[in-house]
Amino acid sequence: MSRFQNRAPDSLRDVSLVWDFQPGADASLLIRMGGTHVICGISVEEKVPPFLKDSGKGWITAEYGMLPCATNSRYRREIGGRSGRTYEIQRLIGRSLRMMVDLNAIGERTLRVDCDVLNADGGTRTASITGGALALRHVLQKLVVGGKLAEMPKILPVAAISVGIIDGEACLDLDYSEDSSAEVDANFVMSGDGRWIEIQSTAEGTPFSPESFMAMTALAEKGIQELFQLWK
């Protein structure tokens, strides 16, 4: 098989970051992974949800959205309520980012991570996790500098990537054309110490073998380890 720009099956798309993309956010960045561009902005709220009140623990949550012209055909704004797909994605992002830090270490405050897709070309949820994690570290650093945290909490890096089976071959970091025609597509979220946080995998045509799953897992680990270089 051939991929766009002759990309190898085990290679990531070009990745770049633009820090402080939204000056009004407490921390923000624009992450570009190939044609997928996502703004990750963080707002710090000096309160927590009712179920955490007076617990001493903080909270990290996420919201996800896609701009109308992010896709080839206009994406309808979600007015009056988010779709099931959107809820599923933002819950995945929130679960993943909460793995990064002991919530007791951030005090009774909420770190709200907004992930807005400017351009969608596959892998928007994984780009949101990778970018959101970097922005989360940045906002914690700012809280320390601003005197709101006494010291920097211990952070466990987090990153995510998509993998799929195309024409019987495992491929890393799918763009939209690949994702829409893949026999299997999967999303992997990993912590910086090599442990898995979440794996989502779905067969689109016929069931896939354990060997195919292991091939996808190996590719995901390779790609995520490359993404962790962004933390340096």
Automatic annotation (TrEMBL):
InterPro entries: ExoRNase_PH_dom1, ExoRNase_PH_dom2, ExoRNase_PH_dom2_sf, PNPase/RNase_PH_dom_sf, Ribosomal_Su5_D2-typ_SF, RNase_PH, RNase_PH_bac-type, RNase_PH_CS
Gene3D superfamilies, alphabetized: GHMP Kinase, N-terminal domain
GO BP terms, alphabetized: rRNA 3'-end processing; rRNA catabolic process; tRNA processing
Domain Exoribonuclease phosphorolytic residue range list: 12-138, 157-222
Highest taxon listed in the record's lineage: Bacteria
Annotated binding of phosphate, by residue: R85, G123, T124, R125
Catalytic reaction equation(s): tRNA(n+1) + phosphate = tRNA(n) + a ribonucleoside 5'-diphosphate
Alphabetized Pfam families for the sequence: RNase_PH, RNase_PH_C
Binding partners and assembly: Homohexameric ring arranged as a trimer of dimers.
Cited function: Phosphorolytic 3'-5' exoribonuclease that plays an important role in tRNA 3'-end maturation. Removes nucleotide residues following the 3'-CCA terminus of tRNAs; can also add nucleotides to the ends of RNA molecules by using nucleoside diphosphates as substrates, but this may not be physiologically important. Probably plays a role in initiation of 16S rRNA degradation (leading to ribosome degradation) during starvation.
Family: Belongs to the RNase PH family.
Protein name: Ribonuclease PH
Organism: Desulfocapsa sulfexigens (strain DSM 10523 / SB164P1)
